[in-house]
Amino acid sequence: MTETIILLVDDSRVARMMTRAAVAKLRPDWVIIEAASGEDALSAIALDRPNYVLLDVNMPGIGGLETARQLRFRCPSAAISLLTANIQDSIREQAALIGAGFMAKPLKEDELIRFLDGGSKPS
Amino acid sequence: MTDFLRDIERDAVTEILNIAIGQAALALSQMVAGEVSLSVPSIEFLGPDEAADRLDQSTGRQVSVAIRQVFSSLFSGNILLIFPEARSLDLVRSILGDSVPMDSLTELEQEALLEVGNIILNACLGSLANQLGLSIESSLPSYVRGRGARILDTTQAATELVMVLQVDFSVAKAGLCGYLAFVMDIASARQFSDAISAHLARVMNGTAG
């Protein structure tokens, strides 16, 4: 059986730890990989093709929106969502244009469940 | 308080910011899973030294830690989340809970406060942007430790006034209180007030989008 991979992208180690804990609680058998920047995320997908991606927006470097655009092109079947403190309508609108979901920090378990239930399945 | 803002403008600024700060309090209450009490925001126009002294009075002249973000839109300035240093670890513990081993908490304290500040300050700025129909750019959060003058880091000439908006909040569960502050120079404060007045005029005329 093919494993399910979720990629967490956030420049904050604490944010990644909290998100990892929330995902691991709900999906203990999934493989969770992390990246501390958009650039690292784009490198990581060369080795592991994620089925799910959660992305912060405000990060040093190319930032979450540009990373999401590139991931959408390179991993078209992956379920991608922003997970950000930046709750501005303009960010939500850009996420929708990219084909990415939007979740506001702090992460709510019911929203995470909906994202994990509705994403792509491992090929 | 100076007469820089007319009463109606001050009411408008306070109302819009009440909503924005309410979003910040919601984010904090979700993180600590407990109620967050807020004071009525106070808006004052102070010289930099006076502003620093006011903050020192609020904090009992104790060392504080602050998370600062620089923001820019039609107006620009700094937004700060300020806690007494002595209680910051309690806040981190109440937020991270069981997701982080106890022996890692101290090591992670600064990073955790940055993330907490990032969430709370962006909730406030995001609500402000959404209400006014603007886009607000903000820097990555930075961590500052010290007393009033260092925390506020006002760079204007000594004679120039800054707008200091302060809200006190308390988290009963964590036994913690803190402050949220906006600092803008006078030119930005005027543009900020104008943007809010224009927004309210649109709302009153039924043309707000």
TrEMBL record, chain A:
<dbReference type="InterPro" id="IPR050595">
    <property type="entry name" value="Bact_response_regulator"/>
</dbReference>
<dbReference type="GO" id="GO:0000160">
    <property type="term" value="P:phosphorelay signal transduction system"/>
</dbReference>
<feature type="modified residue" description="4-aspartylphosphate">
    <location>
        <position position="56"/>
    </location>
</feature>
<dbReference type="InterPro" id="IPR011006">
    <property type="entry name" value="CheY-like_superfamily"/>
</dbReference>
<feature type="domain" description="Response regulatory">
    <location>
        <begin position="5"/>
        <end position="120"/>
    </location>
</feature>
<protein>
    <submittedName>
        <fullName>Response regulator</fullName>
    </submittedName>
</protein>
<dbReference type="Pfam" id="PF00072">
    <property type="entry name" value="Response_reg"/>
</dbReference>
<dbReference type="InterPro" id="IPR001789">
    <property type="entry name" value="Sig_transdc_resp-reg_receiver"/>
</dbReference>
<keyword id="KW-0597">Phosphoprotein</keyword>
TrEMBL record, chain B:
<dbReference type="GO" id="GO:0016787">
    <property type="term" value="F:hydrolase activity"/>
</dbReference>
<keyword id="KW-0378">Hydrolase</keyword>
<dbReference type="GO" id="GO:0006935">
    <property type="term" value="P:chemotaxis"/>
</dbReference>
<protein>
    <submittedName>
        <fullName>Chemotaxis protein CheC</fullName>
    </submittedName>
</protein>
<dbReference type="InterPro" id="IPR050992">
    <property type="entry name" value="CheZ_family_phosphatases"/>
</dbReference>
<dbReference type="InterPro" id="IPR028976">
    <property type="entry name" value="CheC-like_sf"/>
</dbReference>
<keyword id="KW-0145">Chemotaxis</keyword>
